[in-house]
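Re: the multi-chain job from yesterday

Posting the exact lines I submitted so nobody has to dig through the queue logs.
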Amino acid sequence: MPPRIRSSKFASLPRPTPSQSSSARPQSITQNTQPSRQFSQTSCQQATLRRRKFYEWLNGPGKQLKEPLPDSTNYLGAYDRYGNLVRAGPGYQRGAAKPQAEGESKLTETTNKAAAPTEEAKTPEGQESLDELESAARKEEVEKKDAEQDDSKLPPETAEDLRPFPLNQYFRSQSVLSEDLREAIYQRVKRDGATVSLASVEFGVSNERVGAVVRLKQMEKEWIAQGKTLAVPYSKAVLNMLPTTPHIDTTDPKNKGKRPIVHEPINDLIVHPATRQQLWVPVAESRHFTREDAGKAFDNSLLPADERIPHPELVKAERELASGLSFEERRKLAEERFAVETAQKKREEEAREAEIRAQKVVPQRRWDFVFKDISVESAGRNGRDVRGVGWRYGLPHQDRKKGQVKIPTKVEA
Amino acid sequence: MVLRIRLSRFGKKHAPFYNIVLTHARTARNSRPLEVLGTYNPIPQPPRPGDTHGRPWKDIKLDMSRARYWVGVGAQPSDTAWRLLSMVGILEPQYRISKIQGQVTKADSAAKSLIPETPITPPAEAEVTQEQKVEA
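And the result, structure tokens for all chains:
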């Protein structure tokens, strides 16, 4: 077992003498002179094999992990047994001569990119020709090749670098949303009023994740408004060491011809618990057995798979395309669908607002008293109607009955 | 018999919940009332999501027209029920903070006029000034 390092023992680590090095950090971690007993000042004489191995590793291969590479993961799987970065070329040296080279390359890149938009005419968004997309893709490939040829430059991460556990080579760490992308999703939904499913399609992020991002961002903004301090350095440090999905702003002329990076597959069919059993349903040959019937075979209230997928509208659009409708016709249909959806949303919103307006709020010293007007008649003639308000008389409680769920099933966030 | 508008306690231990009821005055608290006018949840609810500077709130459901009718025909609200009904303007508030404060000051001044204040303050002030001088 490696020794437990107590905080008081860090003080006993040897400090570099001022003449020895310019950097403040010690170049290697030496085995600290640990006292043999807590009350004793004499150092521990026996250095076990394991302890020696541990310190060998700390000063050898493990040394690379102490300072994470900028814009890269910091996983064990990226290094071989001797502490060499697997993906690095033979000419690559960490820290040495990198800043100048990178600075130069960045400069050239920025000049290239700055020059590019001026050449291209400003066409409205969404009317990019296939040629432009192709040329952009080709440009990216060329850039990649350049990076590969340059030995001193660090190549981009490969699958090897996404393995945090060297013994489990099948585990790959999945990328998370970058800060820019999360902000963009929030703005698209909150400011532009896009529906969650639309934002999901545009950014290639699943419906649930879009909802979570919007809720968390909302909370974050509220906290900022309340003057709470956020753990920004922590989140930055963690995000720096994780693979992230960057945000590609297609409205930006710099990103002309690029497509937003898809974060995850968005239209996967969720496995419904009712469909986990195997069924043997004999069907007459003459019968037309559709997916709808298949859904009903599992459960009478189960919708067909076509309606249970997160984005049925994408399938509809594809079907229209396959049926040979012209662009104008398809657009008209899509707009009609969108109008129906927005009308529904508006109706719900208005109903909610009307409910709030019907309430009478009386602010008092510590809390608001919110009065909702109800009708006594709703309790019905015998006073036992479910629409009646208040605790019922003469009805026993159901809460000790079998099968009553007491764990909250939803959280107001 | 006197009709009363009062609260009857339901809910569990440490989780009170009240029905605002119209009953005969001499019936038991939780017995079946003539009418359930509404409910009162005295546990403050946390501010609603999306409400940045929101305040906690208490949920009250009340059939206002019915309550107004019963008060009109002579139902007598209890103190707590009076407080709730006065918030929606069905009744005049029974107690006002300013009114009570006025009563307190009036009683205070009356007491002072009866018993004249003993002059204790001058010696205390003198001590203080001496201390200040020593410090200086």
